[in-house]
Amino acid sequence: MVGENIIFLRKRNGLTQEALSERINVSRQTVAKWERGESEPDCSSLMRLASLFDVTIDSLVGNVEEDQKIVGVAPKGKYFFGLATIREDGSIVLPEKALEVFQLSKGSQVAILADEDRGFALVPKKQITDMFSLMGKN
Length: 138
Fold this sequence. Notes:
2 strands; 44% helix; mainly alpha; single chain; 7 helices
């Protein structure tokens, strides 16, 4: 999985194996071995890779769920939590990781924003309230 993520991020950033190896101070052969899954980066190399690609080490080494493969490894602070299902009663169950990251629980409120061309966005009430407070419209 680490090797696949390195390939994805290297290509997304327009880097060759040689260019990547120079930027993180390892040999091109080392990068090739990581990408083929013959070896894995040590902690120091993982930190340099994560910093270069602006991703977390966790996302760099983590498994990507099947429905996440469409977006690959997300930058720091950006998430693809997976798919949610709209139930018959219109309710939506958010993935556990989304609830955890945004500190939401039963009874929490979210604002639903939409753009007909781009889709929906859910924003925790506190963020909307904070935004309006900054604008002086609260």
